[in-house]
Write a structure and sequence with these properties.
mainly beta, Immunoglobulin-like, four-stranded antiparallel sheet, 12 strands
């Protein structure tokens, strides 16, 4: 019985201590918000400073399903890349404003949707039912194994009216191999 009372007392003291620590006000040493530095991208030994824009102007949300590539007819070197949905939304209060949502395959613009006086762009696969037509490629052409042909670089980017990149999603998409 004594052990239970001691254990209960220790537990109550711990909970009281946690409550006191969590209720203390947090004070900042400086009233000024920290100045954001430009993000740095690193790949292997290479680094670069990325374009920096106002944090308030960044797209708050870019939702994207996983892109996929399929070959409807194995007798043809034709594949289709599609995305089930994409959505970009900005805060709509700070310039630059969201203007376009672009899809690029290997750097080439393949789809673009624009808005005017709106802060959200939405795409679903019904807008391009088959997807973006590409060549499948021969086995291991993209280096992903004999079951796959080409590997495409996919970039989904939200941009402002002046072309500033406001955020994006990037992926590599493997297509099935074409075996004649």
């Amino acid at each position: 019985m004594k052990e239970r009372i001691v254990l209960l007392s220790v537990l109550i003291l711990l909970l009281a201590g946690l409550f006191i620590l969590s209720s203390r006000p947090v004070t900042a040493q400086d009233d000024q918000p920290p100045t954001p530095s430009a993000p740095i991208e690193t790949m292997g030994e290479n680094t670069r400073e990325l374009e920096s824009i106002s944090p308030n102007a960044l797209v708050g949300f870019i939702g994207t399903s996983n892109p996929y590539c399929y070959q409807p007819d194995p007798a043809r070197d034709e594949c289709y890349i599609n995305i089930r949905y994409m959505q970009a939304t900005d805060n709509g209060t700070t310039s630059p404003y969201l203007y376009t949502l672009e899809v690029r395959l290997d750097g080439k613009l393949r789809y673009q949707s624009s808005v005017f006086f709106e802060n959200s762009i939405y795409y679903n696969y019904d807008m391009i039912p088959d997807g973006l037509k590409v060549t499948c490629g021969s086995p291991n052409q993209g280096g992903a194994g004999v079951d796959f042909g080409k590997v495409y670089s996919l970039a989904i980017q939200a941009k402002s009216g002046d072309g500033t990149n406001m955020g994006g999603n990037y992926a590599g998409v493997r297509c099935p191999a074409y075996v004649p």
